[in-house]
């Protein structure tokens, strides 16, 4: 790569600066949605003038009308530590205004529970709760992590159309006032995050989570980014949410710099649909011709979460192309069950053998679904040699045990910048030698938000 004709790119998380050829395509969202000029005012307006419901203050006073306000209970469902960007503290907090309105209406602070929708993820530590919600909130309100395997805190809500017997957290079911929060962004299984996902899979039992993440759902072509109508994951989650209900929802959209671009509050389904319609148009990146090499940047906390950005790049990567993932992975690989499933994959002759194995299982094992999604990546790139994972968040010995090519192979135990530089440079050289021409290179700077998609014709800008 000629440094005189290279383009320099800097990203904040993971913090790294690297060069790509000047003719590389930066796959960024086509519509530059401006951050909200006054996020706090937008949040207040959304709570006062919601979509499809009365204002939150009105809902609080009218829900459970036979109860004195001091006896009413409220449960606010929040995202877990794997979604660290949701604004729960600070000037743009979506949580603090809700808490203020609840208390202003007369709900006692000890009757307000913040319920962390963990799904199958681990509980947050006390330090993480302080970081997510702020010390004042932690000191004033009960904060409970959902536990998908604690039968004493789960109750049946019936059987879904897919045959799943669903149990939901009793703290949520028994609350007089039920409020959902979160961020809406593309989701590589459910179409979009946010909305109904706070309940299912967020507050469901392990068996429901297993079905939600089963090959029966995930091998369906509808289980992908931005798709809702034909998406079995979305259909399951929506059916569960309809059964248990929610009194109010507030979801936000954010740009790649984590600034708020939209606030959607009100009816849990109508507000979600308004947000997803707006977001789908904003985040789709039209691509005319697939790329030979894609560099994608992932800011999430571990290898488990990084699958989203990797899978998101696949629609615009040629079969047998190379995916270079620059990953934060500050929390390592993932839970022990995930690590065990990865080890099982590595013990098999081919990654397709893993798919065959999980399709034959009588029960879905925790975290197998994320390994299944990595298998989709391996399908596209032709095996671990086509997936180059650059991170310093995972120790070299541990990274070498994963189904990928370790970035450390290029530098040893070095820093991230030289690792990324050498991975890109050597990949482009090898691709050019193989193709007999300069490879087409695309760069996705925010794999969690931008969704590249092949289009038949150029899109007018």
From TrEMBL:
Residues 28-219 form the LarA-like N-terminal domain. Pfam families: Lar_N, LarA_C. This is Uncharacterized protein. One of its GO terms (molecular function) is lactate racemase activity. InterPro entries: LarA-like, LarA-like_C, LarA-like_N, LarA_C, Ni_dep_LarA. Residues 302-403 form the Lactate racemase C-terminal domain.
